[in-house]
Every structure is written in C-alpha cells, then in structure tokens.
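Need tokens for this chain, all 132 residues.
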Amino acid sequence: MGTDNSPLTYKNIISQFLLNFPEFAIKAEEEKKWWEGEPGEGPLVYIFFSNVVNISLVQALKRNGKSELLRRIFNFFEHMALSSDKMVSDLLVAGILEVLGDDKVVLKKARKLMAVKTLEMSHEVEKGWGRE
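Here are the structure tokens for all 132 residues:
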C-alpha cells in the first residue's frame, strides 16, 4: 500500500499510514509528545489510530460521509484487512471497526465506503458485539 511498495506490518503501519496520508502528519506530531516513552520509542499503534485517525475519520463521516480522503482511507483499511500480518487485521477490527460500530449513522456511511474484506469484517464485528 505504501508508495515504497512495502507490505503493511504492525511494525510499519504508522509510517505507512503517514506516507499515504501526509495530511495527518501535523496531528501526528502534535500527539507525539504524549506517545514518547524512552528515547527512540515510537507511538503505541492503537493510541495513534485512536487519537489521530479515528477522531478525524468519525468527524468526516458525520459531516458528509463522502470525500476523496475518506475513499483513500477506506482503501488503506482494505489493505489492512488483507495484510498477512494478523496484528494489522486485529488492529483494524479492534482499533477501527469496533469504533465505527459505536454509532449506527457513522457505521452506515462508513459501510458505503468499505471494500469487500473490510465490510465482511465489519459485519463480523457487529455480530460479535450483538449489534446486528
């Protein structure tokens, strides 16, 4: 998915996301001061997706539900769903899809943008939570 053709892994998911979505770089830098532990440690992946990605994603879906940015994000999510790294698909489920399912209006808009595997996973999540 990355412009350098690197496969998505849990280890590179943040750098790959920022490579594909430079518009999130400022927000990521603002949040970074809260992420740093020991020198050289990067951010925790779930915190990155919660504080940087999900907040903007849910707001954009509530506003209009259609934009080029949203289309690109959901394309990235499909690459996450198809990743051979199980931790990446687990991140998609627990860190993103569960959050989208918390609001039925947001979920309905999001599902219109989901590709096949992401949509399948979304239905599995909602069934698992007893929400559908």
